[in-house]
Amino acid sequence: MDIELVAYKDSHAHVSQDTVNEFEKAIKATSVATRLIANPTKNASRYAAALLLKTGMHPPTLPFRSGRYHRFAVLMGPEFKKVFFPFLFNRNNSVYFFDAWPANHTRIEWFIRSFRPKHVFFSSSQVTELFQGKGLSTQFHWVPEGIDLNDYSSRDYAAKDIDVLSFGRKYDELHNKIVDGLEIDGISYLYEKEKGKIIFPDRAAFVDGLARTKISICVPSAITHPVRSGNIQTMTIRYLQSMAARTLIVGLMPEEMKRLFDHTPVIEVDKKDPLGQIRDILAHFSDHIPLIEKNYQAVRQQHTWAHRWQMITGVLGE
């Protein structure tokens, strides 16, 4: 089966595109016959998609659409400008959605009804189940987020000099209970000091910082971003990045992760005494190395983007 990957010709510096770029790179690295089709008309696509969506209209069904290739795109939410014309002029299309949060569902449903993709893959199991119940002609599939281990590194445990890291928007309920005590103890703790201001200046610094970290605090977006995420709890790449860097995860585990791992990869935070819990973990950190290594091997064997792409091509080839 010949697949065309719809992607932007230019690179994107925004941190939200890192995950998309990582997945697209993994797709292009496979042995599947994948051709890259860059969208040179993204500005026109943006205006056309916005106009149709605003008016509730659907694009025309063109009788001369090509059926030679199956076009596939990776979208960060309702990023329809990326695929507007490439999908409009093609008969067989499928798409993978990150960040299909509740506020975007109306627009995503409009896109599905308009372009009638054969398959839609969501990174969230809850969103997949929700769309499966809408009676749409498209087939919906859950394919969780993955990772490319080659894009990350890890340091020897003795060389890790960041004790606790909370990257992204912090979990305030937990943060407020530990920040003063960790500072008094002289325990290094990195976190978002100003909302929207990232901890590390660029991706290289982020990868290195994560490799230097002993404990990574991870909680679902539904807790840290409730307005955006609603009740959708999904395994974001944050969990996999922490495992890839051989960092111990402390926090809250999304329910769907129980279906993805045959062990419990996250140490559940002690909400009553998180400071005492973190102190104890750091004092006996070597006791947790077997879990860290087990997490790393689980990711290597089951949760890379190559594994996810194999799942997708298995569906597309049916």
List strands and helices in order, with pairings:
Layout: E1 3-7, H1 18-28, E2 34-38, H2 42-55, E3 66-76, H3 84-88, E4 90-98, H4 105-115, E5 119-122, H5 125-132, E6 139-142, E7 162-166, H6 172-185, E8 189-191, H7 203-211, E9 213-218, H8 221-224, H9 226-229, H10 237-244, E10 248-251, E11 267-268, H11 274-283, H12 289-302, H13 305-316
Parallel strand pairs: 1-2, 1-3, 3-4, 4-5, 5-6, 7-8, 7-9, 9-10, 10-11
Question: How would you describe the overall organization of this protein?
Answer:
This protein has two domains: 3-146 and 305-316, no CATH class; 149-302, Rossmann fold, CATH 3.40.50. The chain has a six-stranded parallel beta sheet with strand order 2-1-3-4-5-6, with helices on both faces. It has 318 residues and is an alpha/beta fold. The longest helix has 14 residues, at 42-55. The chain contains 13 helices and eleven strands. Helices cover 39% and strands 18% of the residues.
Rg over CA atoms, rounded to whole Å, is 21 Å
- Kindly estimate the percentage of residues that lie in beta strands according to DSSP: 15-25%
Major β-sheet annotation:
6 strands, parallel
Uncertain residue segments: none
Helix and strand pattern: EHEHEHEHEHEEHEHEHHHEEHHH
Number of domains as seen in the coordinates: 2
Q: Level of helix content?
A: 25-40%
- Mean of pLDDT: 86
Q: How many beta-strand runs? A: 11
How many helical stretches? 13
